[in-house]
Automatic annotation (TrEMBL):
PROSITE patterns: GLUTAREDOXIN_2 (PS51354)
Coiled coil: none
Enzyme class at the top of the EC tree: oxidoreductase
A Gene Ontology molecular function term of the record: peroxidase activity
E.C. designation(s): 1.11.1.15
Superkingdom of this protein's organism: Bacteria
UniProt-listed Pfam families: Glutaredoxin
Name of the protein this chain belongs to: Hybrid peroxiredoxin hyPrx5
InterPro entries hit by this protein: Glutaredoxin, Glutaredoxin_subgr, Thioredoxin-like_sf
Record domain Glutaredoxin: where: 11-68
Keywords: Oxidoreductase, Peroxidase
Organism: Sphingomonas dokdonensis
SUPFAM superfamilies membership: Thioredoxin-like
């Protein structure tokens, strides 16, 4: 079986770490995924990412090139 890999985009600003991003990373690691943890470290980075991907929120998880969504979406995906 191939290694399970996921890409996680999450926001970590100097004054704020997104708790949903922390949760999504923990969920992925518990499920055995190798996480490519991509930090959005400024409001501008975060806004640009959301505009590029047409999403309203971070974190966003991608598995096998498919956007899964945020931490709630990830839980549903892994439970399916």
């Amino acid at each position: 079986m191939a290694d399970k890999k996921a890409i996680l985009y999450r926001m970590i600003l100097p004054d704020h770490t997104c708790p949903f991003g922390v949760r999504a990373k923990a969920i992925l690691e518990e499920a055995g995924y190798e996480v490519d943890d991509r930090i959005l470290s400024s409001r501008a980075d975060t806004d640009a990412f959301k505009a590029e991907h047409g999403v309203e929120t971070t974190p966003q998880v991608f598995i096998d090139g498919e956007r899964i969504g945020g931490s709630d979406d990830l839980e549903r995906y892994l439970a399916a």
